[in-house]
Amino acid sequence: MRSLALALVLATAPATAETLSEEIGRTGLAPTEARLAALPSPTNEELFALAGLRFLGGIEAALQLRWQTGVQADWSELPILRLPIPENPNARPFAPADFTTLITGLDADMEAARTALTQLGDKPFALDIRLADLWFDINQSGTRDEGEDIGSVTGLALGGGRMIGVQLEDPVITFDTADAAWLQAYTHFLSGFASVTLAYDPEPAIQRVLDSSKAIYALWGETPPNNAMDMMFGRQVDRAAMVLHALAKTPDKALAQDAHGHFLSMIQENRRFWSLVALESDNKGEWVPNDKQASGLGIMMPPGTGERWQAVLADAEKLLKGEALVPHWRFGAEAGINVKKMFDDPPPVDLITWIQGEGLLPYAEKGPQMSAASWNDFESFVQGDSMLFAVFLN
User: Fold this and answer.
1) What is the DSSP string of 97-146?
2) How many domains does the chain have?
3) Residue 314 CB neighbours (<10 A)
4) CA 168, CA 381: separation in Å to the nearest integer?
5) pLDDT per position in the chain (394 positions), as tens?
């Protein structure tokens, strides 16, 4: 009996120990997250992996909902919705409630990621992740299919912009304590985005445009249109109408203030990230390197990138705190718009009165105006790749 039991154990045991990265590549994000979440005493590496998987899992859930409803990557104005995904030939109709589900789900996953990161704190760890092991189960088949690897979906993660210096065939990143702060900052950014979006309750606006578009297309009858205007611009015009209708209502004050807190926390955590990166002396598989390190992705990071990016975020923090004002063409050189007041008591967006100035008078005051010098310096420094770096550096 002992020999039989031993034989059964040997038959089911893996030949070699499987790394966390290999487990993700084999089973996917959700199964690995579920196993780690059930551990009674996770290691520091497992806690970071749990946070990272919840972060990526939030993105995966959003991509899955998009695939189910056939929402393609033509919402270039919004994070998550701009990522390319495979087409679903049997997609169900998109409903306004789907958008709310997507945003609230994303926010919940960011909160879950922060829970694991809070438990981890500043404890030291080093976790090797082979980026080729990361994939999103977009069609929920349980297996990796074409177009589901992280490179195909995000582009930036494995290269694809002019800021890539050396194209690495199989990059492996060694995530460490500093990268936990980077991840914390990014969860706050996405939660802030979610709170701003939900503050304007977009469902009625989406339904209004869907209904009007349906009525418009009913007028076509059997005769094809005599131009291609709708094919070229119809979807974009509908999206713009959804956004403008939603912004025209008075937003939820508590959600606006919640977003304000997340954006300030994002800057705080980003600042902590750069302070930790500056202390690193190793040079192995760096996610975002300091001036003496090399990127594990092959990204060209000119010396001084971190310093210049921190200057950009310092300006953003001044705006959020009301210490610097947004210039307005009607308010002269001595006054501007206090952004903090707009988060404290958020207004509906009325483009006519905002452009003319009347609608922004409650938030206008005398004081120092924000300069674009830091952003212009950063943009010039990274040679036109400012938006790519902004997304990457957070």
Assistant:
1) HHHHHHHHHHHHHHHHHHHHHHHHTT---EEEEEGGG-B--TT--SS--T
2) 1
3) 13
4) 24
5) 444 444 444 443 344 689 999 999 999 999 999 999 999 999 999 999 999 999 999 999 999 999 999 887 666 556 677 788 888 999 999 999 999 999 999 999 999 999 999 999 999 999 999 999 999 999 999 999 998 999 888 864 444 444 455 556 788 999 999 999 999 999 999 999 999 999 999 999 999 999 999 999 999 988 888 888 988 888 889 989 999 999 999 999 999 999 999 999 999 999 999 999 999 888 888 898 888 888 888 777 788 888 989 999 999 999 999 999 999 999 999 999 999 999 999 999 999 999 999 999 999 999 999 998 988 887 777 666 666 666 777 7
| CA 103/CA 112 separation, integer angstroms | 14
Residue 213 maps to a domain: yes
Q: Which residues span the domain enclosing 74?
A: 17-292
Catalogue the long-range contacts made by 91-99 (C-beta closer than 8 Å, 24 or more residues apart): 91/67, 92/68, 93/69, 94/69, 94/70, 94/210, 95/69, 96/202, 96/203, 96/204, 96/206, 96/207, 96/210, 97/203, 98/65, 98/69, 99/202, 99/203, 99/206
Residues making up the chain, counted from first to last? 394
Beta bridge partners of 172: 130
Contact 204, 244 (CB under 8 A): no
pTM of the predicted protein model: 0.90
Give the closest residue to 19 by CA, choosing from 141, 133, 137.
133
Q: Is 332 a domain residue?
A: no
DSSP character at residue 295: B
Q: Is residue 91 part of a domain?
A: yes
